[in-house]
């Protein structure tokens, strides 16, 4: 037998059992850090669409209700669907998305994906509509990473960041995050005015979570940060800069890339996803560090077949 069966898991004992099944598939190191109760709380408002082949789990996606609020994300109508990152079967993905759209009702579902051959096949199979591009994806395999770190000019300095921070560096980073307008949402509300305690906690949390962090200092001010975290077999890199020199940004990214092999030797590729207003400043920097433009990450919308237009 090789039969596929699909179902929706909404609540109750069936949901508890499925979350336990997912928890059992996580790494032992993750289970050491996150108890099952905390893991389950992450899915309190989640439904699951599940595929099984001969009773064995063959794929799944999570389904969350639309975001409330008046921001751009909330304006995208539809339930938020997210398939498991290790699912690479176009037929299963397409059927999961179609069933999720039926489960969501007239508003349908939204999801985002890169424009790979697999994802484009799924879009064609489902008839989903592209709403807009969210990010531009740039990637570099380890063989393309710079062999040496370019030395920044004009007194710029690149250094690795680890907790706890000395008071002088902590003060500089508080100033940087505030000047750059980065939101701190660690409290009940979000603010762009940072203080030493919130920055120290941010760095401590990231350090404990295994993130790699680099800063760029220029004229005695922190002007950029880059941090990297593992996602499957990718190293995702995020860059924030505020009036940073291009040569310094190149050195910043190159220094971060050189730390990856020792810390995470199994990484297949480094990935940076740029928002539209970041592209002009950061795309030349990434190109200088061996990255290539791999296309957009696009937001898609799918409604149940036969649903009248809204």
Give me a quick take on this structure.
This protein has ten helices and twelve strands. It is α+β, with helices and mostly antiparallel strands.
Key words describing this protein structure:
alpha+beta; 2 domains; Aminopeptidase; 310 residues; twelve-stranded mixed sheet
- Run of helices and strands: EHHHEEHEHEHEEHHEEEHEHE
- The total beta strand count reads 12
Can you tell me the residue ranges where pLDDT is under 50 for at least 5 consecutive residues? none
The end-to-end span amounts to 42 Å
Which percent bin holds the helix content? 25-40%
Describe what this molecule looks like in 3D.
With 310 residues, this protein is an alpha+beta fold. It folds into two domains: 4-127, 3-Layer(aba) Sandwich (Aminopeptidase), CATH 3.40.630.30; 140-296, Gcn5-related N-acetyltransferase (GNAT) (Aminopeptidase, 3-Layer(aba) Sandwich). The protein has ten helices and twelve strands. The chain has a twelve-stranded mixed sheet, with helices on both faces. Helix 5 crosses helix 6 (117-126) and helix 9 (246-263) crosses helix 10 (279-288). It is globular. The two termini are 42 Å apart.
Write the layout of secondary structure elements.
Blueprint: E1 4-9, H1 12-24, H2 28-33, H3 36-41, E2 47-53, E3 56-64, H4 72-75, E4 79-83, H5 90-104, E5 109-114, H6 117-126, E6 129-140, E7 157-161, H7 167-179, H8 196-208, E8 212-218, E9 221-231, E10 234-241, H9 246-263, E11 269-274, H10 279-288, E12 292-302
Parallel strand pairs: 4-5, 10-11
Antiparallel strand pairs: 1-2, 2-3, 3-4, 5-12, 6-11, 6-12, 7-8, 8-9, 9-10
